[in-house]
């Protein structure tokens, strides 16, 4: 690659016949070359379902985070939101690919992301709620990152070596996401009357969705300890709230998931098999 | 006579010199993402790469460039495989890589955190590691944004020389 003309070199024809523009193409299997074997004794259907659910949480969260691009309060925070979304998108790609290896269908990552209807998605509903204001977005991110981190810490010991490796990598990323979100929640909660009120309203809005998170994974104590640490520092309160009926893990979703997927899937559905 | 060992060394040197697409002053060897290069009994060169971040968009580019360089060097059979475990850490950035980062105005990472047993603690206190300015070496610096142009970088500024700089944060 020539360093003199970076744009030309990025667009140049490579020996493999694949013209690339920056990193927009060449989305090959992110588990390329990783041993796909499933250890004896691991239930393939169960493993596939677990990968799918975690992939869906990550993809839907990444899409919501990407919606902040060009809309965030400051450029620096926009980059943070986009980078966090990119980490989660990477986790989703790995998890979907693993799912396709073990569920017997041989599907690739795109089939899971682009070719399933809302009822097929297994993400928790908190992930799909609209972004709302910046306060709700950082509160939601704090909750989801803390919850996913606590579960990923346990998954590093999973009998499936691929899922365990994806989790070990994700732990480092999620800890940083949690850190960024926690600092914002403290800053907003301990800020002006307006930012405090909005952040408290965000916690009130998120609270009924927490029961679903703890029904999915047994990490309640770890997550509530972290949330308590942050709300104490921020002068906020996580209100007790009865869990909402239904579960995203069973395919039960709010009315907000379908429009999110419409946008996410529009190009792939309008132009089947398109590459760019 | 060419022995398999020296042949593997030659292949490794070719793969090692591939630049990182996002930090082009570093080679893949400097960055610590090239985990292994070996030649299998059937003559296939197998290069093993590990991603820095799960969503690293440069991974496909690295893979393609390594394969293209090895092919151009005359190896007929080339395979580039992904290694996820153990996960990449900034501790694998070599001393040469750290020096090159600093020479290009990017503060190299400190030692990666080594978590103990139990849940990863959340630290809300403002005391963090002081990152010396890569230009003037002053310790009087501050973070301006937790995320920079890529996932691996944060934005900092030096209060002494007044220059902003990027910092490869340790993971």
* CATH-derived architecture of the largest domain in chain B: 2-Layer Sandwich
Average predicted confidence as pLDDT of chain A: 91
The CATH C-level class name of chain A: Mainly Alpha
* Beta-strand share of residues of chain B: 15-25%
CATH-assigned fold name of the largest domain in chain B = GMP Synthetase, Chain A, domain 3
Which consecutive residue ranges of chain B, at least 5 long each, have pLDDT under 50?
none
Please, how many domains of chain A?
A: 1
Tally of alpha and pi helices of chain B: 4
pLDDT averaged over residues of chain B:
91
Element layout with pairings:
The complex is a heterodimer of chains A (276) and B (171).
Chain A: H1 6-11, H2 44-66, H3 75-102, H4 109-114, H5 125-128, H6 134-155, H7 161-189, H8 193-206, H9 210-216, H10 220-234, H11 257-270
Chain B: H1 4-16, H2 28-31, E1 34-39, E2 45-49, H3 59-72, E3 78-82, H4 95-103, E4 106-107, E5 141-145, E6 153-158, E7 164-168
Parallel strand pairs in B: 2-3, 4-7
Antiparallel strand pairs in B: 1-2, 5-6, 6-7
């Amino acid at each position: 690659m020539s360093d003199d003309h970076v744009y030309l070199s990025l667009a140049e024809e490579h020996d493999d016949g694949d013209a690339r523009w920056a990193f927009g193409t060449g989305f090959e299997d992110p588990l390329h070359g990783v041993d796909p074997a499933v250890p004896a004794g691991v239930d393939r259907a169960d493993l596939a379902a677990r990968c799918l659910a975690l992939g869906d949480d990550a993809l839907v969260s990444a899409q919501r985070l990407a919606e902040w691009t060009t809309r965030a309060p400051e450029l620096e925070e926009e980059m943070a939101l986009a980078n966090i979304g990119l980490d989660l998108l990477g986790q989703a790609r790995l998890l979907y690919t693993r799912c396709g290896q073990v569920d017997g269908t041989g599907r690739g990552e795109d089939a899971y992301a682009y070719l399933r209807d809302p009822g097929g998605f297994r993400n928790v509903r908190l992930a799909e709620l609209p972004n709302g204001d910046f306060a709700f977005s950082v509160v939601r991110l704090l909750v989801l990152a803390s919850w996913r981190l606590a579960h990923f810490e346990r998954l590093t010991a999973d009998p499936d070596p691929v899922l365990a490796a994806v989790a070990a990598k994700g732990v480092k990323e999620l800890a940083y996401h949690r850190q960024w979100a926690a600092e914002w929640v403290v800053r907003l909660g301990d800020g002006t009357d307006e930012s405090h009120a909005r952040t408290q309203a965000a916690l009130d809005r998120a609270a009924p969705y927490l029961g679903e998170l703890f029904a999915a994974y047994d990490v309640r104590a770890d997550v509530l300890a972290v949330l308590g640490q942050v709300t104490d520092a921020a002068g906020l309160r996580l209100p007790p709230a009865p869990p909402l009926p239904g579960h995203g893990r069973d395919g039960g979703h709010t009315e907000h998931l379908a429009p999110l997927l419409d946008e996410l899937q529009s190009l792939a559905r309008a132009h089947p098999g398109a590459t760019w | 006579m060419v022995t398999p060992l020296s042949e593997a060394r030659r292949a490794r040197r070719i793969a090692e010199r591939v630049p990182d697409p996002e930090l082009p002053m570093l080679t893949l060897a400097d960055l610590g993402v090239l985990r292994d290069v070996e030649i299998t009994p059937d003559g296939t060169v197998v290069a093993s790469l590990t991603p820095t971040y799960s969503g690293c968009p440069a991974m496909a580019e690295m893979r393609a460039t390594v394969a293209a360089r090895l092919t151009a060097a005359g190896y007929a059979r080339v395979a580039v495989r992904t290694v996820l475990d153990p996960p990449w850490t900034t501790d694998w950035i070599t001393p040469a890589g750290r020096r090159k980062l600093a020479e290009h105005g990017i503060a190299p990472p400190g030692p990666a955190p080594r978590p103990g047993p139990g849940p990863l603690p959340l630290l809300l206190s403002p005391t963090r590691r002081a990152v010396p300015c890569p230009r003037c070496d002053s310790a009087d610096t501050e973070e301006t944004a937790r995320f920079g142009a890529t996932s691996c970088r944060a934005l900092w500024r030096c209060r002494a020389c007044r220059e902003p700089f990027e910092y490869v944060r340790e993971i």
